[in-house]
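Hi support team,

I submitted a single chain yesterday and got back a structure, but I'm not sure I'm reading the token output correctly. Could someone confirm the output below corresponds to the sequence I sent? I've pasted both exactly as they appear in my results page.

Thanks,
R.
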Amino acid sequence: MEELTVEEIIKYAMRIERESYGFYRRASKFLGGSELGSLTDDLAKEEVEHVNQLKSLLDEEIITAEDLNYTVDIDTSMFTQIISTQEIPPLATSSDILHIALGREKDTLSTYDMLLTLTAFNEDVIATLQTLKQMEEVHVKRISERIKKMKSA
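Hi R., thanks for writing in. Yes, this is the structure output for that exact sequence:
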């Protein structure tokens, strides 16, 4: 267990989303102009939206300084697993890339689930985390459907 402020937790979530953006940009370059390249382009754009939602909590002073400095005991052992996105191997197939993406999205979804169990957040933080969780669920579904489609082809 580690003691983190609400601000540190928000910044960590932003880091996750930025890392996802970077992954999808690399995947998009790897996949070129294919249909899957278009999917990863879309996912990259959505990750930027996620970062902006979290950033607005800090930049627009939606949350008071007192709320941002509130500390929470949190199990950070899973944090390193999420941030370290698997790199795309040089000979990766489209399927390999989708499976890496799916694992990352599931990890991110689990993180938001865990963060939503904390009671230290104000309504705005909770609403943002719930929205991001729902968006991650959509990402998991989109990627899973694409993997299924590839298997059946």
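A quick pointer for reading it: The chain has a mean pLDDT of 89. Let us know if anything else looks off.

Best,
Support desk
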